[in-house]
Design the sequence.
């Protein structure tokens, strides 16, 4: 089946969960693992920019899009198994991980030798409390109460995402603006993308990935990663993301670091979501080729 100029496919993960994906392009296989509040096609323009050189696979991580549910035994290990299943089925030896998807990609490279080169875009690792997750119970309570706007504001403030001016606004005003943004998004129905409201419950599981991989100090366990690694970040991103990249740069044996001037955490996304996919694609292509 073809949609959005891509071919749809799926693989079966170790626990039987279906993982759906979009495929486009030609050349060596490259899996692009999305981050929080996203689905596979959230990086469709990045894949398009790379498609002349690589066969790009854009999986929907479990719990969203064309993939199956999280399951009762959800953990970062299930996400690793999902990526491993896609790598095995496609023969891809390159991967790009974005945000929480970068943590999953890194953990996969740690335990699976199927990857030759990986690109990690701003993995939100908690390095000695740099990215705490103790706000998750409040987020869960607000979401359970049906107050999606409040939950999204809690998440945005805790992760320090969104325009800097927003983070200085009173909470009640932020919640009102979030409600308006949700209504505008639902009205526009952009390209069939899931809305903030639809994706909000998935944030719990991305935070769980961060919590499971928190470290009291430098992530020394990653010294055994054999793949070549490109660490990419934006100069305008929150400081804790630079802290994680710095820590990884110190311990990964085959890594180099790139900081992209003028860009923030949304850089890999589609242009409608304030992304700059062409610029990021140029760095990825140079590294992989």
Sequence:
């Amino acid at each position: 089946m073809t949609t959005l100029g891509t071919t749809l496919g799926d693989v079966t993960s170790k626990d039987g969960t279906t993982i759906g994906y979009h495929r486009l392009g030609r050349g060596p296989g490259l899996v692009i693992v999305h981050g929080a509040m996203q689905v596979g096609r959230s990086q469709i323009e990045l894949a398009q920019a790379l498609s002349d050189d690589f066969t790009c696979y854009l999986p929907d991580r479990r719990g969203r899009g064309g993939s199956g549910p999280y399951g009762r035994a959800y953990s970062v290990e299930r996400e690793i198994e999902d990526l491993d299943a896609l790598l095995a089925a496609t023969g891809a030896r390159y991967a790009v991980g974005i945000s929480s998807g970068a943590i999953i990609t890194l953990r996969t490279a740690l335990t699976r030798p199927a990857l030759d080169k990986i690109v990690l875009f701003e993995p939100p690792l908690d390095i000695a409390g740099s990215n705490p997750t103790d706000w998750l119970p409040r987020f869960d309570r607000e979401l359970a109460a049906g107050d999606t706007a409040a939950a999204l504001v809690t998440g945005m403030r805790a992760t320090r995402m969104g325009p800097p001016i927003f983070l200085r606004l009173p909470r009640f005003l932020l919640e009102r603006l979030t409600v308006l943004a949700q209504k505008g998004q639902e009205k526009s129905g952009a390209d069939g993308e899931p809305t903030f409201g639809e994706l909000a419950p998935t944030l719990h599981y991305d935070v769980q990935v961060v919590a499971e991989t928190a470290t009291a100090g430098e992530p020394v366990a990653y010294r055994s990663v054999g793949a070549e690694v490109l660490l990419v970040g934006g100069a305008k991103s929150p400081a804790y993301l630079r802290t994680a990249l710095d820590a990884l740069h110190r311990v990964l044996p085959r890594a180099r670091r790139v900081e992209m001037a003028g860009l923030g955490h949304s850089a890999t996304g589609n242009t409608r979501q304030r992304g700059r996919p062409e610029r990021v694609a140029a760095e990825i292509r140079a590294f992989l080729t």
